[in-house]
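Hey, quick one: can you model this chain's 3D structure?
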Amino acid sequence: MAEVSAEARIEAPAEKVWARLTDWSSYGEWNATHTGFPQGGPQAPAVGGTFQENMKLMGFPAEVDWTIEELEPARVFAIRGKGPMAVTVATRYTLIPDGDATTVRIDGEFTGAAVSLMAGKLKDSATAALNESLRKLAGLVT
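Sure thing. Here's the predicted structure for all 142 residues.
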């Protein structure tokens, strides 16, 4: 298993950050691993809902079939998906309001036999992508 996380304070209210975080048409403008939604982003996100995403991590393309596990508007968006080579991916976005600012935390988890072969590189690459994503997200909402 490989676990990664990143956190940043964004100078915008949680509702504004959430609106950008869940604006599927502009997801690729800030999410460093996103390359597309083959069938469009989630139409009406709800717990149990599913969607597909094309991603790139460590230079490799991957298609992930996601299921929404937790959804609390302007607070939590948690998804778990199946990727190539029997890899399971989990991502959790947590927004913590702080006055006119918001602390955004992204936690990621990768499990599966293929992960153990490259856990160190995967952690480094995924952590860098999370930090870049938060930087870009902050630039779009402030």
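One thing worth noting: The chain has one domain: 2-141.
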